[in-house]
Amino acid sequence: MPAHILVVDDNAEMRDLLGRALRREGHRVSAAADGRGMRAVLAEEAVDLILLDLMLPGEDGLTLCRDLRAASAIPVIMLTAKGEELDRVLGLKMGADDYIPKPFSTPELLARIEAVLRRARGGAAPAEPPKRLRFAGWVLDLDRRELCSAEGVVVPLSTGEFNLLQALVERPRRVLSREQLLDLARGRAAVAFDRSIDTQVSRLRRKIEPDAKTPEIIKTVWGGGYMLAADVVPA
């Protein structure tokens, strides 16, 4: 059955080659050169499988695969010029469904794709992600887009504040750069010297921290960005 396949590779010739081969098999193809482009496609369309190159500018394929697996069950096949066992094992540990080193034959790749798609379509439906997340005494309701205190009091948040808090809460104890937070919270790329994330973080701290001057929930990582320094569990 035809599928929508997203090819993520910084090599334009490789994207074109894979696109032609997949379209000949009846598949619909989208392409991206890096993680930002990949997220843009995923934000707009449903994708059945991702062909993800390991060596990418910015965030590498292993990081993107790990983030994808934390957020969705879309099958991922890693592509790389590296053939060492360590790279293969790391890719699979990050959640890749299969791994194929370059150079590869088109028939082999197509066979791997069909096998992964069959497994994905025949497997059990992925678990529904939690809609309410608890952290540091707070509850973030993703459906209602509300933040509630331990006493059940709703704390008003702007759209930007909610989106930023959601991005942090869904990735606890992970350092996120300002550029990543802009992409996750607003779906756009950062511009040079864009400090709006700092302003949003300051506003959030005033609302959720016991003492905004010495924050314990949203930590600043100098030279890195920000991190939610709390455990997150379903509420």
What do these coordinates show?
The protein is α/β, with parallel strands linked by helices. It has helices spanning 12-24, 35-44, 61-71, 85-93, 106-122, 159-169, 178-186, 196-208; strands at 4-8, 28-32, 49-53, 76-80, 98-101, 132-135, 138-141, 146-148, 154-155, 218-221, 225-228, 232-234. It has two domains: 4-122, 3-Layer(aba) Sandwich (Rossmann fold), CATH 3.40.50; 132-234, Winged helix-like DNA-binding domain superfamily/Winged helix DNA-binding domain (Arc Repressor Mutant, subunit A). It is built from eight helices and twelve strands.
Secondary-structure arrangement, i.e. CATH architecture of the largest domain: 3-Layer(aba) Sandwich
- Assembly category: single chain
CATH T-level topology of the largest domain: Rossmann fold
Strand order, sheet with most strands: 2-1-3-4-5
Outline the low-pLDDT stretches.
Answer: 188-194
Main sheet makeup:
5 strands, parallel
In the CATH hierarchy, what is the superfamily of the largest domain? Response regulator
What is the average of the pLDDT values? Answer: 85
Query: What gross morphology would you assign?
Result: elongated
Task: Give a topology summary.
Layout: E1 4-8, H1 12-24, E2 28-32, H2 35-44, E3 49-53, H3 61-71, E4 76-80, H4 85-93, E5 98-101, H5 106-122, E6 132-135, E7 138-141, E8 146-148, E9 154-155, H6 159-169, H7 178-186, H8 196-208, E10 218-221, E11 225-228, E12 232-234
Helix pairs in contact: 6-7, 6-8
